[in-house]
Amino acid sequence: MAGEFALIHALRAIATDPAARALADDAAVLAIGGETLVLTLDTVVESVHYLATDPAADVAWKLVAVNVSDLSAKGAIPLGCLYSHALGEEEWDRAFLEGLDEACRHFAMPLLGGDTVRMPEGAPRSFSLTALGTGPKDCAVPSRTAAKPRDQVWVSGTIGDAGLGLAAALGTLTGPPEHLAALAAHYRRPMPKPRLGAALAPLVHAMMDISDGLLVDTARIAESSGVAIRIEAEAVPLSLALQAVTGGAIEARIAAMTAGDDYELLFTAPPENAVSIRETAEKANCSVAVIGTVDAGGGLTLVHQGKPLPLPERLGYQH
Ligand SMILES: Nc1ncnc2c1ncn2[C@@H]1O[C@H](COP(=O)(O)OP(=O)(O)O)[C@@H](O)[C@H]1O
Ligand SMILES: Cc1ncc(C[n+]2csc(CCOP(=O)(O)OP(=O)(O)O)c2C)c(N)n1
Ligand SMILES: [Mg+2]
């Protein structure tokens, strides 16, 4: 099979239960009695999702955070998690558990169980986590399929920090040490926002988290929803650290929009909800920005200072 896309396509014939959302969403959505259970599973693999040199506690944090990010995008509040641990060196494993404990406490997601295995000598390690959350009570669980013409496109936080943070962690980026440290922290310790996601759920049409890259994930909403989306490159929020290190020119913006590992929320909402969205974000102490618009039609277009900008060859990360 050619890769991630082909495999997931083939799996759709098996995962026909409506709760699977046709394997076209961030999480499964299972109605149980009057409640909605939201379920997701993400894995981190050495040398693919984290560096062997990353501190063990940060690897555990990332494992928890990438899963909480999927719950957040569905407006779900964490309920608990199960994880699978590949045994390693004793000290490293101990530090990993400290990070796991810290992250589970931070996101109020108790560890409920899991599994432990040993990989063959020398094999890279991987850690999987299944997160469960409770979906919103008074509205539908936001999907990738509900963007509508006239919607505004929004993102939370800033984009591209983790991508540069990887370069900082690899030592291939130069700049003021405090900025490099801030960028590396974005890479190692993503900060998803479950309270913001839950508060936004009633106000949005489509919502997902950005894991593979802003452009590719926006293209996924456009395709799933059967709409056209136009992104204004200059409206994409960039951190001061990213601007200071890169200068913030259009090439750096494009790199930020395609790097991935952001774990921010990407959502569309009707313009009449804009004031409530800004108030909601302020209450949650989070920043949000309008970066584009939804129209009838299909596909993704990029605009820079009013002029069309050709899409980069690579819109984001692909396995
Ligand atoms: N091995 C698998 N078995 C079943 N479903 C899968 C598998 N791999 C991916 N999926 C599903 O495919 C969809 C897209 O996957 P992915 O890109 O990993 O989602 P996300 O970015 O939200 O973590 C999701 O619905 C996910 O549950
Ligand atoms: C060592 C290393 N190289 C490259 C990356 C970049 N990267 C790897 S996977 C990924 C996308 C997110 O991972 P994925 O498994 O696709 O998560 P999902 O989309 O399922 O949430 C990115 C941006 C990284 N995080 N670490
Ligand atoms: Mg992915």
Tell me about this structure.
The chain has 319 residues and is α+β, with helices and mostly antiparallel strands. It has 2 domains: 4-134, 60s Ribosomal Protein L30, Chain: A, CATH 3.30.1330.10; 152-309, Alpha-Beta Complex (Phosphoribosyl-aminoimidazole Synthetase, Chain A, domain 2), CATH 3.90.650. The chain has helices spanning 4-11, 56-73, 90-106, 161-170, 177-188, 194-200, 214-225, 240-246, 250-259, 274-283, and strands at 28-32, 35-45, 77-86, 111-117, 126-134, 152-156, 207-209, 228-232, 265-269, 288-295, 299-304, 307-309. The strands form 2 sheets. The chain has a 7-stranded mixed beta sheet. A 5-stranded mixed beta sheet has the order 1-2-5-3-4. A hairpin with a 2-residue loop joins strand 11 and strand 12. Helix 2 runs parallel beside helix 6 (194-200). The chain starts with a helix and ends in a 10-residue tail after the last strand. The model has no long low-confidence stretch (mean pLDDT 97). The structure holds adenosine-5'-diphosphate (ADP), thiamine diphosphate and magnesium ion.
